[in-house]
Specification:
The protein is an alpha/beta fold. It has 16 helices and 17 strands. The protein has helices at about 20-30, 45-50, 60-65, 80-85, 100-110, 130-150, 175-190, 205-210, 235-250, 275-280, 325-345, 360-365, 395-430, 435-455, 465-485, 490-520; strands at about 1-5, 30-35, 55-60, 70, 90-95, 115, 160, 165, 170-175, 190-195, 210-215, 255-260, 285-290, 305, 315, 365, 370. The strands form three sheets. It has an eight-stranded mixed sheet, sandwiched between helices. A seven-stranded mixed sheet has the order 11-10-9-12-13-15-14. A two-stranded antiparallel sheet has the order 7-8. Helix 6 (about 130-150) packs parallel to helix 7 (about 175-190) and helix 15 packs antiparallel against helix 16. The longest helix has about 35 residues, at about 395-430.
């Protein structure tokens, strides 16, 4: 079967769904690759690069759609492209099925199978095909680069002969994939980075990347993002008011704001009001990654960069991944390749459209002349974090009762053990000679005391305790050597075993301690 990749018709789109490297990988799956001439030019991939990778280059889009049994694209197909679909043909692309009923109906009439890359379920096994996350990662990175390009100072603080340069302060609103990418880029550039998200479980992720999480003095039970497909749940009006008040407090302090709050097929929530923009310092920058759906900032203009009356630059571009076309194409084509790998389990160049597979079924919007959107919930779901159990605090009387009960239980166990031990000693004493019992009792008491001492030490301290156990073992060896010359065969045997086992403990302890100390030494 042939995989065809046409040139994108969407104005300004520079990405391409096939790179020379991914073409080589697809050929290993048994496929032949076809691409329209000039399809990869804006991403930096020339036709000759594709030819060297064994890809056939055709002159027109019509010829490509006719020749390929599988067509891979980036953008949602235009009406003219939907007309070129044929029965049994497979289209893999961003498709926006929730807001593209006409496109699904056209594919159904043509009898084509459509796989929407944004519909890939957000489960662990499907991460390698998650094109939404791939593109959001690039958008978050590029947002910081755009901000730095429009910001008049360094991100990192510097002390120079000409004076001190303070570090930039960056606020990232939303800690999803794009937000985390923006946080990582901002901190790596040396800025003081703050981040906010309505999902409290992301605070640890934010702080692990070197940013400071912005907490609200407001408690509200939030649904775990894993239970909502990775997106934040809608907040209450009271929570929103507290959130906006916090942002208004931060507005005069921050130099750069990057907003990323966007849920597919919904209007972007307004998080940065005109009042907040007016409170920012001249020269500040706002990059709105939600501009495509109205923007998180009240003053954002889609696909434009504006400067407000107080000197704040607001960037409302919607093509951040396309502005890094080479990288975006590489990641997206890898997502496509992984999808085709799952569709070709036998690596024979033939699609096996298994509708029982969670990932394939979830991403399929039309199949065999039927619309299959929306898909059923996946059998394997992302695991949401369990809510923290609130442990009630005990009263003084309850604590006292618990301590008494624990003491009684411990005393009971010790009495039972001592009684059993005494009975065993008495049984041995009935048959053993008096000289043996004298040494045996000392041995039993030593074992008992040693057990109590060692057992009371925390497990994390057992390795440093090797030095002490070596001293104990040396006492055991000394005592055994004094008994090894005895005339009793049983005493000689026990003394020899004691020397052997204590010797292992000593030399093994030295080796372990030496290796442990070596961990803290410079090579």
């Amino acid at each position: 079967m042939k995989i065809g990749v046409p040139k994108e018709l969407y104005e300004g789109e520079a990405r391409v769904a096939l790179t020379p490297d991914s073409a080589k990988q697809l050929q290993k799956l048994g496929y032949d690759c076809v691409i329209e001439t000039g399809a990869g030019a804006l991403a930096g991939f020339a036709d000759k690069d594709y030819k060297e990778a064994g890809v056939e280059v055709v002159k027109t889009a019509a010829a490509l759609w006719k020749a390929a049994e599988i067509v891979a694209k980036v953008r949602q197909p235009e009406a003219v492209e939907l007309k070129r679909l044929t029965k049994g043909q497979t289209l893999i692309s961003f498709f926006n099925p929730a807001a593209n009923e006409a496109g699904m109906e056209a594919a159904k009439v043509k009898g084509a199978n459509v796989i929407a890359m944004e519909m890939v379920p957000r489960i662990s096994r499907a991460q390698k095909m998650d094109a939404l996350s791939s593109m959001a990662n690039i958008a978050g990175y590029r947002a910081v680069i755009e901000a730095s390009n429009n910001f008049g100072r360094f991100f990192t603080g510097q002390i120079t002969a000409a004076g001190k340069v303070p570090p930039a302060k960056v606020l990232v609103v939303g800690a999803g994939v794009a937000g985390l990418a923006a946080i990582g880029t901002s901190t790596s550039l040396g800025a003081i980075t703050y981040a906010f998200d309505v999902r409290p479980e992301v605070a640890e992720q934010v702080e692990s990347m070197g940013a400071q999480f912005v907490y609200l003095d407001f408690e509200e039970e939030q649904q775990d993002g894993a239970a909502t497909g990775g997106y934040a749940a809608v907040s209450s009006p009271e929570f929103r008011e507290a959130q906006l008040a916090k942002f208004l407090e931060l507005a005069p302090e921050v130099d750069i704001v990057i907003t990323t709050a966007l849920i597919p097929n919904r209007e972007a929530p307004e998080l940065w009001t005109a009042e907040m923009v007016a409170a920012m310092k001249p020269g500040s920058v706002i990059v709105d990654l939600a501009a495509e759906k109205g923007g998180n900032c009240k003053l954002t203009v889609m696909d434009e960069k504006i400067v407000t009356d107080n000197g704040v630059t607001i960037v409302g571009y919607t093509d951040f991944p396309s502005r890094m076309a080479a990288q975006a194409s590489t990641l997206y084509s890898t997502n496509i390749r992984h999808m085709l790998t799952d569709l070709t389990p036998d690596k024979d160049g033939q699609i096996n459209h298994n509708m029982e597979d969670d990932v394939i079924r979830g991403a399929t919007v039309t199949y065999a002349g039927e619309i299959t959107f929306p898909p059923p919930p996946p059998k394997i779901k992302a695991i949401a974090a369990k809510p923290k159990e609130v442990v009630p605090e005990l009263t003084a009387e309850e604590k006292r009762a618990a301590e008494v009960a624990a003491f009684k239980a411990q005393t009971k166990n010790q009495v039972i053990l001592l009684s059993v031990g005494a009975a065993l000693l008495l049984g041995v004493g009935l048959v053993a000679p008096a000289s043996f019992m004298q040494h045996f009792i000392v041995f039993v008491l030593s074992v008992f005391i040693g057990f109590q001492v060692i057992w009371g030490v925390a497990h994390s301290l057992h390795t440093p305790l090797m030095a002490v156990t070596n001293a104990i073992s040396s006492i055991i060896i000394l005592g055994a050597l004094m008994q090894i010359g005895s005339g009793s065969f049983l005493v000689i045997l026990l003394a020899s075993l004691s020397v052997f086992m204590a010797g292992i403990n000593i030399f093994g302890g030295f080796l372990v301690t030496r290796r442990m100390l070596a961990m803290f030494q410079k090579s």
